[in-house]
Amino acid sequence: MGITWTTDLNTGIEVIDNQHRRIVEYINQLEQAALRRDMPSVGRVLEDLVDYTQSHFAFEESLQEEVGYQYAKPHKAVHEMFIKRVSGYQQRHAAGENVIEALHTMLSTWLIHHIKRDDMAYVREVGVKAQAATQPTQTGGWLGRSLKRFFG
Ligand SMILES: [Fe+2]
Ligand SMILES: [Fe+2]
């Protein structure tokens, strides 16, 4: 079943919420492609999803560093563990194993859980600073620089 965006997934930091929404869209696209048994699309969406998620993680980690979040390191470790898990699935997928359904379930549960628990935790603690750092006010500011750096 597709993920529906609900308000309890909003962190209130617009740029982060937009990135999370985009990841959710990719997860839903993956499910659609799998339901159509459209394997080329599955492969393509999976690649885009991993690529985009890695950019989001790097962006978020950099934001946490910028605002001095005390648990930036463990948060980064959680991101890394997730990427490892996904690449495990990707390898099995590439080897011809049928893992898409299991992967899709893992992606949806993991992401929702991570946003609600870990991402909300940093927003509770350093949300005000993160808000300020992500205002698109000045050119050459943190937001513009970081979007360019992590999303190209
Ligand atoms: Fe995160
Ligand atoms: Fe996040």
UniProtKB/TrEMBL annotation:
Origin superkingdom: Bacteria
Domain Hemerythrin-like: 11-123
UniProtKB keywords: Iron, Metal-binding
CDD domains according to UniProt: Hemerythrin
Pfam families membership: Hemerythrin
Gene3D superfamilies the record matches: Hemerythrin-like
Keyword Metal-binding on entry: yes
Single GO MF descriptor: metal ion binding
Family (UniProt): Belongs to the hemerythrin family.
Record-given protein name: Bacteriohemerythrin
Organism (species): Ideonella livida
